[in-house]
Amino acid sequence: AVLSLTNARTSVTSGLVGHAAKVIGVATSKQREKCTYTGQIIPPPARYGGRHTVTLIPGDGIGPELLNHVRELFRFSCVPLDFEVVNINSSITSEDDINNAITAIRRNGVALKGNLETNHTLPPSHKSRNNVLRTGLDLYANVMRCQSLPGVQTRHKNIDIIIIRENTEGEYSSLEHESVPGVVESLKIITRNNSLRIADYAFQLAREKGRRRVTAVHKANIMKLADGLFLECCREVASGYPDIAFDSMIVDNTTMQLVSKPHQFDVMVMPNLYGNVVSNVCAGLVGGPGLVPGANYGRNYAVFETATRNTGKSIAGRNIANPTAMLLASCLMLDHLKLHDYASMIRNAVFATMNESLLHTPDIGGQGTTSEMVQSVMRNIKSSGPLTTEL
Amino acid sequence: MAGNALRSTLSRVLGAVKSQTQPRTFSRGVHTVTLIPGDGIGPEISTAVMKIFEAAKVPIQWEERNVTAIKGPGGKWMIPPEAKESMDRSKIGLKGPLKTPIAAGHPSMNLLLRKTFDLYANVRPCVSIEGYKTPYTDVDLVTIRENTEGEYSGIEHVIVDGVVQSIKLITEQASRRIAEYAFEYARNNQRSSVTAVHKANIMRMSDGLFLRKCREVAENYKDVKFTEMYLDTVCLNMVQDPTQFDVLVMPNLYGDILSDLCAGLIGGLGVTPSGNIGANGVAIFESVHGTAPDIAGKDLANPTALLLSAVMMLRHMGLHADAKKIETACYDTIRDKKVLTKDLGGNSKCSEFTTEICRRVQDMD
């Protein structure tokens, strides 16, 4: 009854007051739980006069400087977005920082983050902070679109592969024990529910983007039960999507095919570890870690970052990091928030900048700096017309 | 500081002594090698290799054996006793592709061989072949993969309906053994660095143990540079610039994926050699491609993979001059592009390709 009343009010006032009315209508959190699949997720409630609030986690290495550039760019382009910055100190063992971040993301619904470094000499009780974030928010799908950019020189051209990787279980369960001194066992967990969920996500996304084929990547000839279950779930879901072709490939053959004939792949879905390998191989094929954005989607939350999750410690603070991946990730975030105009404006400006090889950063063979690239993006936005603030 | 120098010279001397005791016994006389032709195109490529070795006058005597699984006493599947006895005597084997039975009831033959001879290290050198063009040039690296445990332990359980757990096993002993082999290999083959590939940020205890053992072994081999790199970083950099890698050592699953990735960089499994090193000095060199039943018996097969594996075998046995001769003949033939099998882009027969290599080998004498 409450919902229908607010809906009626929204429809009456929407014509008059526009965005502000949506704020009133969406005040009840019921709408947020109605999110099902991609494209139908209701954006998080925008407070304070139509401006969205997004959690920003600077991270380590090149994260802080790149995210500063993103903030600068958003301010320049008048994007109606405010950032709530949550700093996480990845070297201390206390879990308070990461818990604060998780609470902030629950509050805002969307986050943009840099990678958090994991010190692997610390004992196993200190889990990887990125992993804790993903499992804490149940961000079960990691989506990465590897697209060749025309201005970048690579060995293979015209690649366009979407990789969907299960993000919460598999080899990353962090369940390890030393049963006998000198013998360590690490558990890889595969569940039917999560496999069905990720397969369903993959097929829905393929259908939405007009893709023709989904390939499941596995190693079921060796891990018969675990990957066998994953493959079975994919097949089950595939039968419900007759318009999309489904095939499977073993992971070692997949990597071999990716370096020799990458154009045979369309959409790929796989468990966690193989996703790590395949996504890094594909990122390398299109030009490197500085070019590909990644998104982590859950039922209620979404977190955006660079696809290959590098901290870039060796290039931090030297103004040579490639901002493309982070800028494109912020465009993905704007799309998620249904601010499509801003997203395409920034994306087109980034692509236009990438076409000029003089501005390329060292990782793609040029000698430009990060700030020069960002300035060029801002110039492209200014010349394309819409309202901007003073530089 | 003086202590360090003394220790490193001592370890180098000991290392040299150790490598002396192994294959140096083969330096005189004719060596026996167990040959397992395999299925499909196996017999024809084995014949090709034997012909080339004959033309090069390599002091090797072949003992052909079959390894179809038989059921031994007690119901356990095992390889035929003649094959096992021949391998134990000769210690060196050359194997063609074996058919994997789908519903024969017994495990794969490769698995049986691995268990029988405790083949703990899989070595795959990947070198770009001049004349067989791929988008990647100047690849020259070696992947050394732990072959007995890790993710392929085969221990899986259904905990409750819909939840499956697969166990990855890492032991101190196996990690130390593979690390030692990797550094020995690097030293014996004049390689400058060894990189351990791991994912210790996520799998802290298991890959952490592997990494610790590698670090410990690295202390004894100060002449070889040791670095560690995350698996995803290796994949990323491998696809962009494979020249930065030298020797890579890693647990089973990462090794499986990376070795096939590197094979793809140089042109696929049809041109990649591979060797399996076991305990007790046993070593089996093999071609890793499939049996290709569609071209079996038609004289169309490409013997390059088996030939390069045989060259690897010669190097392992210490017959470096013969190895270089045959390898050069093979590379020259491919570079010339006049006589190439179908998969390399030509349209010659397997026998013609073999004859051409034999001719080059004889011309070199």
From TrEMBL, chain A:
- Where is this gene product found? Mitochondrion
Q: Which cofactor(s) does the record list?
A: Mn(2+); Mg(2+)
Listed under GO biological process in this entry are: isocitrate metabolic process; tricarboxylic acid cycle
Q: Name one GO molecular function term.
A: NAD binding
Q: Name one Pfam family in it.
A: Iso_dh
Where does the source fall among the domains of life?
Eukaryota
Ranges for domain Isopropylmalate dehydrogenase-like come to: 53-377
Per UniProt, the keywords (alphabetical) are: ATP-binding, Magnesium, Manganese, Metal-binding, Mitochondrion, Nucleotide-binding, Transit peptide, Tricarboxylic acid cycle
Look up keyword Transcription and say if it applies: no
Primary subcellular site in the record, as a coarse category = mitochondrion
One GO CC term on file: mitochondrion
Primary role: Regulatory subunit which plays a role in the allosteric regulation of the enzyme catalyzing the decarboxylation of isocitrate (ICT) into alpha-ketoglutarate. The heterodimer composed of the alpha (IDH3A) and beta (IDH3B) subunits and the heterodimer composed of the alpha (IDH3A) and gamma (IDH3G) subunits, have considerable basal activity but the full activity of the heterotetramer (containing two subunits of IDH3A, one of IDH3B and one of IDH3G) requires the assembly and cooperative function of both heterodimers.
Provide the assembly information.
Heterooligomer of subunits alpha (IDH3A), beta (IDH3B), and gamma (IDH3G) in the apparent ratio of 2:1:1. The heterodimer containing one IDH3A and one IDH3B subunit and the heterodimer containing one IDH3A and one IDH3G subunit assemble into a heterotetramer (which contains two subunits of IDH3A, one of IDH3B and one of IDH3G) and further into the heterooctamer.
Family per similarity comment: Belongs to the isocitrate and isopropylmalate dehydrogenases family.
Q: What is this protein called?
A: Isocitrate dehydrogenase [NAD] subunit, mitochondrial
* UniProt organism field: Electrophorus voltai
Automatic annotation (TrEMBL), chain B:
Keyword NAD: yes or no?
yes
Chief location: mitochondrion
Q: What PROSITE patterns does the entry give?
A: IDH_IMDH
UniProt cofactor(s): Mg(2+); Mn(2+)
According to its UniProt record, which reaction does this protein catalyse?
D-threo-isocitrate + NAD(+) = 2-oxoglutarate + CO2 + NADH
Record GO biological process:
isocitrate metabolic process; tricarboxylic acid cycle
| Key words, A-Z | Magnesium, Metal-binding, Mitochondrion, NAD, Oxidoreductase, Transit peptide, Tricarboxylic acid cycle
Gene Ontology terms for molecular function:
isocitrate dehydrogenase (NAD+) activity; magnesium ion binding; NAD binding
Cross-referenced Pfam families, in alphabetical order? Iso_dh
Where is the Isopropylmalate dehydrogenase-like domain positioned along the sequence? 32-357
**Subcellular location field:** Mitochondrion
| A single cellular component GO annotation | mitochondrion
Q: Where is the signal peptide?
A: none
Q: How does it assemble?
A: Heterooligomer of subunits alpha (IDH3A), beta (IDH3B), and gamma (IDH3G) in the apparent ratio of 2:1:1. The heterodimer containing one IDH3A and one IDH3B subunit and the heterodimer containing one IDH3A and one IDH3G subunit assemble into a heterotetramer (which contains two subunits of IDH3A, one of IDH3B and one of IDH3G) and further into the heterooctamer.
Describe the task this protein carries out.
Answer: Catalytic subunit of the enzyme which catalyzes the decarboxylation of isocitrate (ICT) into alpha-ketoglutarate. The heterodimer composed of the alpha (IDH3A) and beta (IDH3B) subunits and the heterodimer composed of the alpha (IDH3A) and gamma (IDH3G) subunits, have considerable basal activity but the full activity of the heterotetramer (containing two subunits of IDH3A, one of IDH3B and one of IDH3G) requires the assembly and cooperative function of both heterodimers.
Family as reported in the entry's similarity comment: Belongs to the isocitrate and isopropylmalate dehydrogenases family.
PANTHER family xref list? DECARBOXYLATING DEHYDROGENASES-ISOCITRATE, ISOPROPYLMALATE, TARTRATE, ISOCITRATE DEHYDROGENASE [NAD] SUBUNIT ALPHA, MITOCHONDRIAL
Protein name per the record: Isocitrate dehydrogenase [NAD] subunit, mitochondrial
List the source organism: Electrophorus voltai
